[in-house]
Design brief:
This protein has helices at 3-27, 76-84, and strands at residues 33-47, 51-53, 87-95, 98-107, 110-133, 137-147, 150-161, 167-174, 180-187. With 190 residues, the chain is of the alpha+beta class. Strands 1, 2, 3, 4 and 5 form a 5-stranded antiparallel β-sheet that branches. Strands 6-7-8-9 form a 4-stranded antiparallel β-sheet, covered by helices on one side. A hairpin with a 2-residue loop joins strand 3 (87-95) and strand 4.
Length: 190
């Protein structure tokens, strides 16, 4: 076999290979997609502006009492200091996913200010889809075919596995007469 016949044979095999690849990609079922779904919960805090309560003074009549003497000693400065001092009170209620906090300021025997704040935790559902698409895979190796008369083919082989799980194999080698030969095969998945 001379070089021109070998080149014609190789070109013919390449056209056959391209035709088979086109037909299998055109008529084979759609590609397989693997979807891995993960569901994750995260807790977010909802923060709402707090409401401040400032009471309005209500005038009421105070009787005019005049004292002349005290029988027990009284520390007037201590009484006035305690009367005008601001005292802060804070209380919080925590139940499940709700937290309520109340802060009061007391002075002059009255509520000077009140602040109410709360937070509610809502679960957030996060769904993550990971799509894994199988890519083309390439393999190479060697092929030896033998029969009763010894080996009939030996040489390297190249394999293509497509996204649709189709296999295409191309082998180029020599036969037992040391003539160049080529092999071509294809396989489909059920």
């Amino acid at each position: 076999m001379n070089w021109t016949e070998l080149s014609k044979t190789i070109v013919t095999w390449l056209f056959v290979l391209v035709g088979i690849i086109f037909l299998t990609n055109h008529f084979s079922p759609s590609k397989k997609v693997i979807i891995d779904t993960k569901i994750e919960y995260k807790w977010d805090t909802v923060k709402v502006d707090s409401i401040s309560y400032v009471p309005k003074p209500i005038p009421y009549p105070v009787p005019d009492i005049r004292w002349d003497t005290f029988k027990t000693p009284v520390d007037t400065n201590l009484i006035l200091k305690d009367y005008f001092t601001k005292v802060f009170y804070s209380d919080s209620l925590i139940h499940d996913s709700i937290t309520i906090a109340i802060q009061d300021t007391i002075t002059r025997n009255r509520i000077f200010s009140r602040t109410l704040s709360y937070s509610i935790l809502y679960p957030t559902k996060i769904i993550t889809n990971e799509v894994l698409v199988v890519k083309n895979e390439y393999f190479y190796g060697a092929q030896i075919v033998s029969g009763r008369e010894g080996f009939s083919f030996i040489g390297p082989e190249f394999t293509l596995k497509t996204k649709k799980n189709n296999l295409f194999q191309l082998g180029i080698g020599i036969d037992n007469n040391f003539s160049p030969t080529a092999s071509l095969s294809t396989s489909w998945q059920f």
